[in-house]
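User: I've been going back and forth on whether these two constructs are worth ordering. Before I decide, could you fold them both?

Assistant: Sure. I'll take them in the order you sent them. The first construct and its structure tokens:
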Amino acid sequence: MCKFKNRQVPPQMFFTANPIIRGVSTFVKRTSRAIHATQVTMAPIQVGDKLPSVDLYEDSPANKVNICDLTNGKKVVLFAVPGAFTPGCSKTHLPGYVQNADKMKADGVAEIVCVSVNDPYVMAAWGAQHNTKGKIRMLADPSGNFIKALDLGTNLPPLGGFRSKRFSMVINDSKVEELNVEPDGTGLSCSLADKLNYKK
């Protein structure tokens, strides 16, 4: 027996015998199981795929940059880093692209883009520290929507949780022409500026 306001209440009063409610409950359970069973597993973006249409931010939350619009009809080099101001990104990854920017653009690259799961103010400050103006577009992906759409994210608790894997890509007319993802997600090897084959 269950107590309710000091009265003895039979346990069966908490269960309904109404067949309509029982039917609805069964339907909800079955639908929930079906949805769970048919969830689509994402696969990382591949060479030949079109970029997802996602807004990134440059300098401030008011300045949206749609990545498909930015890459439409152009050759663009994009590289992503686990975090602004982190040692590997600041000492090696970003500086390599800054040093090679003029050569890349002379060879036909219209834009060079750096993306990180940071806010746009942080990306702007990081870019200013490395003199990226006129060379590299520092685009923020604050909620990680772009990186999630590419399925190239990773969990890095010391950096706050969800971040981007370290990778580079050559994009031609919004399609991925070359993709280099670091094997461990954070290393500094295949995604460096001097490893990129952008002259195709």
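The second construct, handled the same way:
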Amino acid sequence: MCIGFSPEKFIRPKFYTGSGTNIILPQKNCSVSSKMFYSLVMAMKKLGVVMIARRVYNIRSKPKIEVLIPCDKDGIPYLTMLELPFSDGIVDFHFNSFCDKKTAPSQEQLEAVDKLIDGMDLMTASEEDEEAFTSQNTINLTAQFTYRILAARALHPAQPLPALDDDLREHLIVPKKIQPLAQETSDELKRLFQLVPKAQSKKDIWLKKLFKPLANPDEPVEKASDEDGTNVLNVVESDIVEVGSVTPAEDFAFLMHRGEKFSTISAQIESVISSLVFSVTILQREKVVKAIFALREAVKVMESAYRYNEWITEFQGRLVERKKGEFWEDVIVKEGLGLITASEHSSSTVTDEEAQAFYKIDPNAVPSTSTAPETAGNVDDLFDDM
């Protein structure tokens, strides 16, 4: 059903949707239909308009919006029908420009890119001064090579598989006619667009140190190899939204690298550490050490050593209260995960003597407890006293 007509310039190719194209022809063997159809198509072509129509396949189908474009080939008029999206199916994405004051290309760089485009022009790149790699003459290399391998295996099962044939290899190389100019312009681009290694930030250095073995924590970070500095984005899932108990250190590092709010993710890893220490039957030492180490190094990057010092002091009190002096000696003291001193980071005010004294606790100390209030035997009174 025709809804109306629209100038063809308003129906842009980016609006074409659907899974195919339909051709509309007049009713077969009907002269009246052919004359009316011909008049309609010619009038649309003369006015430069297209038809917007509503199409329903059957009574149970959803309606679709179609555009009918007038065409004429070899004296035969017809309409090309393509599906259009509804208004709520069109979303315009706006992206920031790639160029700014630091990355704006110079005039020499722009001219070099123009030369590369001209040098790689395929319109006269063939030996016969015709277009190279035309769509009607270009084959599917993957399919053709697969077919030939299957045929060779079927016909000659005992012989090695053949290599890529020359006729297929020609489709993978730059045509000889444009190779000299293309090589010249590509060398010019390498000279003008030099790749400079980006200096490592404090956060990148910390991420490298996070995945190092903790056997020698005093080793300088700069000595870490590239293999030790495995990118954290490659070892954790990209859909992480919070620090979990399975890989807390890796989750924490990923979220920090992604730019999440530090106060939120630090509170999450502190909660996970407490759960791993106080709420599990079997202590996973390596996981806890790695998590505490990650938090300790992160606060240095964020210039907030006081936060870790406050947390580890509170954590020490909870360990004493729970009679976990063995964990304190085996993990915190042995791995050097105590207070951050002023010699380690400038944001700390803790001296080396205070840090050493912090490690010395009495594992048999009895924590002070308040006397519980006397309660009556009535259950409702117990809830009132809570």
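Notes on the second construct follow. Confidence is low (pLDDT under 50) at residues 213-237, 368-386. The first strand starts at residue 2 and ends at 7.
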